[in-house]
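Students often ask why we bother encoding 3D structure as a string. The short answer is that it lets us treat folding as translation between two languages. Here is a chain of 396 residues written in the first language.
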Amino acid sequence: MTLKVLETNATLLTCSLAIAAFLAWSAGSNNAANIVAAVVGAGIVKLNKALLITSIFVVFGSLVLGANVAWVLGTRVIDSSSIHTSLLTTGMLVAMFAAGFWVLVASLLRVPVSVNETVLAGLIGFGVSVDPHVVMWGDIVLIYVLRFLTIPLSGLISFTIKKFLARYLEDPETTLPASLLSLHLISAFITYIMLSKLLDAVLSLVTALALSTLLLVLSKAYVDEKTSNQYEKIIMFRSVSSFLTIALMSLAYGASNAGIVAGPLYVIMINELGITSVNYLSILLLFGGSLISLGVFSWGRRVVGTLAEDLATLNYSTAVVTYVSTSLTVLLLAELGVPAATTMAVAGSIIGASLAEGYSAVNVGVVKKMLAIWALTTPACMAISYVAYVFMSRLI
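And here it is in the second language, the structure alphabet:
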């Protein structure tokens, strides 16, 4: 038996899609900052252009690679086989609502948060309200420990790279080859992360290196064709590489976060509507990716300023180092089987790169504000999900 207020399959589906759309839109509007903040803050790309590129490539990423994350969040956080179908449906709905609500609160406060974490916490809150034993505590504890190590890890990587690479990126004599190397690393890391979900490690690595090399060659050829002036080449390549980096980051983001929306929806469709076709999962991924894209473009600017301007004063070398260290951190976590907290990786990278220029380069007040919201995210989402489930279960 489903909720009394959800008496028909059509009503259930409509309600599920509405809550999922709210979560997806909230996710896009909050997490756009993760992708574009560094280059926007450095003044390389205008905000509107950056958000437009992000909104387009997020959809592609969700369709191509989102299924893996959808499956993990839909089946691996709680033991769904131990829960009655109607209760599981309610749980998925309240988990999505709790996540979307907290992400919206964070956006109003202009703080980026990990959408992965909010959904995870929402599912945990639901699981605890039903029976703490259905929650897979071992995997969850490991995920959280590794996630909160993301900030110091990305910061350390960023600090080290900035100390080594900054002078080459800022020196007119060496900035072009240093930028080429950076683009190669970023594209290789991100491409490998995405391909590793589909191919074995060796094939993923070879393909990623080949594609990133091809991208590098084409980018340089494009710039060389447009101008022969060295200074103009530098400016143009910085712009081209920034657009390419945004596109790659957006693909990876869409692959990760559309699945967060599609996963719970897919569980609902399987349990309540008896739909198991993989084709429907693709439709749900497109739905999630499209709503995330809408959130990026319609309200993404809300949080961008926190990472792009308030946290630290960014320049070209800081932006490049941020993307290199973020992609490397996410890659390392992915190899450990941990869903990456890109928000924490980006913030940690910006902090680390800025600290390489001196302690005063970082706005400590903004750091404290972000840490406070991040610390509250898990208990808040668990509490919202718990209370919402208890309330809605009375309507069953």
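Translate back mentally: The chain has one domain: 9-393. Keep this in mind for the problem set.
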